[in-house]
Amino acid sequence: MSGIYIHIPFCKQACHYCDFHFSTSMKKKDDMVLALAKEIGMRKNEFENDVVETIYFGGGTPSVLSNDEINFLIAEVYKNYKVSENPEITLEANPDDLSSERILELSKSPINRLSIGIQSFYEEDLKIMNRAHNSAEAKKCLEEAIKYFDNISLDLIYGIPGLTDEMWKQNIDTALSFDIPHISSYALTVEPKTALKKLIDTGKIAEPQDEVASNHFMILVETLQKNGFIHYELSNFGKENYFSKNNSAYWLGKKYIGIGPSAHSYDGKKRGWNIANNTLYIKSIQEDVLPIETEILSKSDRYNEYIMTGLRTIWGVSLDRIEKEFGLDYLNYLLKQSEKFLSDKLVSIENNILKPTAKGKFLTDGIASDLFYLNLEE
Description:
The protein is built from 14 helices and 15 strands. By secondary structure, it is an alpha/beta fold. Strands 7-8-6-5-4-3-2-1-9 form a 9-stranded mixed β-sheet, with helices on both faces. It has a 3-stranded antiparallel β-sheet with strand order 10-11-12, with no helix packed on it. Strand 1, helix 1 (about 30-40) and strand 2 form a beta-alpha-beta unit. Helix 11 runs antiparallel to helix 14.
């Protein structure tokens, strides 16, 4: 199984917390779509023996593309790759782009999964984040989307300054009222060089508090599990048969090709990333040159990656796989580094699988970095 990720680097406006690569100018949109289509063709040899099972439009805001443009890019994938009989084809979309007419149009396209960037049902939160939609649009687009799409995911953000536990519970309950089968939820993080960082530094917005985010996370996990969701990855909750196949492939170390400026690719041995500049990306593709840098992953890079992704998922870190793929030195190192977390009951080992406990889940990324293999000779 392998996947194709297509990065659409345009947004109507910049969300205050976002540090992804995008532009708010649509001037180069036509050239970009042609460049994306060309890159899809230029890279087909990378998947000669692979079947594409997922196509994912991320961004940016992919819903700024017209249906014709989306269908054109999907057709290019079909033209150049072996695609499975029933691939998961996801479009990330914002509520303000999802009018009733647009949702109906999309339902007639090959798109069979929507990932909707709701973030919050409260006006004050949406203003803090500088989202392009309002609360009424968020609810309206979900009412319409569930008429035509069965496979829908929505995003929610917690830990927002001023968002009380009660308000957060209400946000989750509102999401659940639409009977959506998948929810992705993230803590509001303050990235350098974002508008949010500037607003915090100038005292216009309070800094997000870890303790608040940790409480919100516990409420989220408890509420969604009670409602039949499986917490299959740190930030992702899905009902049976509704896990994101695209994202699960990343976490399970499957191959994927990233198309578009700033997109990342991985083939099990090396990682690649495209230039994060729209003008230079288009120019390079027009000149038949892939604007990609690659690095061969060392043994400890691959080990660290497996620790990070494994700990974040319900599949955990297999001690058998560590020994088989990386050797006894790595296994012994991992067991030694895990001792303090085992004694603090932040991780457990069952059936030779290392996983965070309920108490350790919110701390997963910090635990993983303590288990990384550092400064060891290859």
